[in-house]
């Protein structure tokens, strides 16, 4: 709603602030686009280092500083140093950005900030602005960390403490819990960041979560006393779900240079549901032996495959395997990057071998692609548990205890189970189709997530309208 007073136009204005990594920028930028499509003014605030990688026509982009403007996190060389610098420099420059907009016809009404950055709420309140965190993990993972923060789950978690029982969540064994809970000293800065998400929740005006009602209803019900979240997911580009945002085929942010359309051209030569798409995300780095095991497993399976391997990881591939996939791409193709959504949406892709990061999990669910989970750390282990045992849209590759990694025989076994037409494979395919429809339903007009977003938009427009009348 726009209010015209004395020739000035006021419009509810949401500033969206992601943590500056690909997996966090994507869903928050998608949320900003969704809000803009519903009549709000949306601005994304991001670090100087990531600024040039973002382009979304309906969303303004403004820089703030993390203190490492030339190189971002890589320049900091330490999680502790980066997070402390981002808090101090980010708070200062976010305040400057708010004050800059106060002098315009569209002052910032609300800040939706990544839950990793609770200091943004302090900045919002100091400047008389509404604010709320956006949780980029699943509700189940949030529930686990919420129990740790509330003192109901003690660290470290040992085998004898399992299964861990969390209301609304299936019993979790050690291999299902975020990886460092049994060794909290291994990633102290990351653990603090996960727990700090809850530090000032009671002061937030809203809480947002990138999940949807039918996907995690029991989990959310179990958390209702401490976490009154608005479920607004899946935050996946509109073209792959409801199609209501014109031309919305990508997130609009890429910290890596995308490839040409070679991947798509290769997929066009393959039969329907015949290709295994493999990607372990932007952060995971596999050991050389595990890269070799997966490589030979893919070849031995006999299925066509498209594997995304970062240039920095390529040297870990066996030479014979690389020769086979570069000289003759009939069965397999190795690329350094591609548009994952386009790959998952392609008819020839029948399986997604994934690290089970939450964005990739939601993309697999939203596009109805059966999955083989190869989780490595953090929340990925819990996501893999749900993929295999709760939503039953895939299988989880078993780690060989002797070498601590997935062996080639397990890769072949998992691919056969998911790709073939056996009883389990048919069940997985049926469930994948079901969850695709439920994801689409949630975000489409009148769906659970859509109605929740609409309620937020209306409440913010009403706040803006009251402020306009008061100011005049």
TrEMBL record:
GO MF annotation terms: quercetin 3-O-glucosyltransferase activity; quercetin 7-O-glucosyltransferase activity
InterPro entries recorded: UDP_glucos_trans, UDP_glycos_trans_CS
Membrane among keywords: no
PROSITE patterns per record: UDPGT
EC numbers, comma separated: 2.4.1.-
Enzyme class name: transferase
UniProt keyword annotations, A-Z: Glycosyltransferase, Transferase
Glycosyltransferase is among the record's keywords: yes
Record family assignment: Belongs to the UDP-glycosyltransferase family.
Name this polypeptide is given: Glycosyltransferase
The organism of origin for this protein: Deinandra increscens subsp. villosa
């Amino acid at each position: 709603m726009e209010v015209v007073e004395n020739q000035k136009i006021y419009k509810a204005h949401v500033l969206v602030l992601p943590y500056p990594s690909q997996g966090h920028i994507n869903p928050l930028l998608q949320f900003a686009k969704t809000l803009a499509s519903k009549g709000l003014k949306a601005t994304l605030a991001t670090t100087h280092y990531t600024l040039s990688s973002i382009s979304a026509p309906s969303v303004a982009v403004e820089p703030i500083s993390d203190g490492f403007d030339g190189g971002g996190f890589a320049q900091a060389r330490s999680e502790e140093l980066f997070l402390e610098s981002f808090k101090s420099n980010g708070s200062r420059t976010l305040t400057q950005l708010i004050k800059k907009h106060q002098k315009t016809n569209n002052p910032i009404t609300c800040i939706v900030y990544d839950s990793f950055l609770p200091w943004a709420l302090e900045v919002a309140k100091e400047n008389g602005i509404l604010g709320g965190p956006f949780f980029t993990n699943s509700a189940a993972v949030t529930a686990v960390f919420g129990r740790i923060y509330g003192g109901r789950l003690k660290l470290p978690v040992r085998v004898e403490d399992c299964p861990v029982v969390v209301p609304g969540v299936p019993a979790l064994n050690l291999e299902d819990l975020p990886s460092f809970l049994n060794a909290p000293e291994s990633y102290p800065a990351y653990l603090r960041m996960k727990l700090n998400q809850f530090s000032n929740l009671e002061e937030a005006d809203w809480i947002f979560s990138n999940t949807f009602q039918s996907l995690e209803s029991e989990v959310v019900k179990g958390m209702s006393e401490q976490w009154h979240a608005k479920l607004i997911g899946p935050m996946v580009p509109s073209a792959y779900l409801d199609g209501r945002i014109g031309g919305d085929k990508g997130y609009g942010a890429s910290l890596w240079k995308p490839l040409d359309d070679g991947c798509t051209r290769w997929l066009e030569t393959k039969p329907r549901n015949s290709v295994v798409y493999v990607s372990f995300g932007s952060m995971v780095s596999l050991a050389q032996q595990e890269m070799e095991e997966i490589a030979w497993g893919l070849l031995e399976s006999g299925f066509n495959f498209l594997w995304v391997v970062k240039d920095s990881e390529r040297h870990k591939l066996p030479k014979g395997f690389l020769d086979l996939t570069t000289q003759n791409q009939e069965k397999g193709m190795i690329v350094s990057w591609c548009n994952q959504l386009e790959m998952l949406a392609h008819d020839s892709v029948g399986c997604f071998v994934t690290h089970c990061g939450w964005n990739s999990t939601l993309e697999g669910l939203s596009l109805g692609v059966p999955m083989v989970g190869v989780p490595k750390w953090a929340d990925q282990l819990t996501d893999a548990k749900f993929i295999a045992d709760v939503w039953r849209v895939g299988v989880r590759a078993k780690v060989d205890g002797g070498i601590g990694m997935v062996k080639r025989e397990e890769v072949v076994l998992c691919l056969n189970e998911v790709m073939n037409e056996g009883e389990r494979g048919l069940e997985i395919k049926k469930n994948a189709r079901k969850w695709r429809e439920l994801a689409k339903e949630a975000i489409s007009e009148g769906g659970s997530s859509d109605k929740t977003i609409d309620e937020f938009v209306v409440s913010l427009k009403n706040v803006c309208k009251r402020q306009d009348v008061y100011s005049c």
